[in-house]
Design a protein that fits this description.
Largest sheet: 2 strands, antiparallel
Number of helices: 4
Number of strands: 2
Helix content: 40-55%
Order of helices and strands: EHEHHH
Strand content: 5-15%
Oligomer: single chain
């Protein structure tokens, strides 16, 4: 008997994403981490993936909803932004993780 989809349905959970590229560790003194939800609505995932390829500025704007701290709160709030060298890395880490 096959696996039922109801067995795979679950509420989104926070997962830690680590940025451990040598250039980042050299610049910031250590690896960096952020959290995202392990499940995103498929329309949101497709929008993120296609936006990165076609409209990088809009993709960056989406980070505010995706990049979270360990408590599930947005990292980029109240006018806070990430350093430019991290934006591309964070976007690709998110797509890599969600695409698996």
């Amino acid at each position: 008997m096959g696996l039922k989809l109801t067995q795979l349905a679950a509420k989104p959970q926070l997962v830690k994403i680590t940025i451990d590229e040598e250039s980042i560790k050299e610049k910031y003194g250590d690896e960096l981490e952020f959290w995202i939800y392990d499940r995103q609505p498929i329309d949101k995932f497709i929008k993120i993936a296609s936006t990165i390829a076609n409209d990088y500025n809009s993709a960056v704007a989406m980070l505010a909803d995706l990049v979270l701290d360990e408590d599930g709160q947005p990292v980029m709030k109240e006018g806070l932004t990430l350093p430019n060298d991290l934006v591309s890395i964070v976007l690709h880490k998110i797509i890599d993780y969600l695409g698996k």
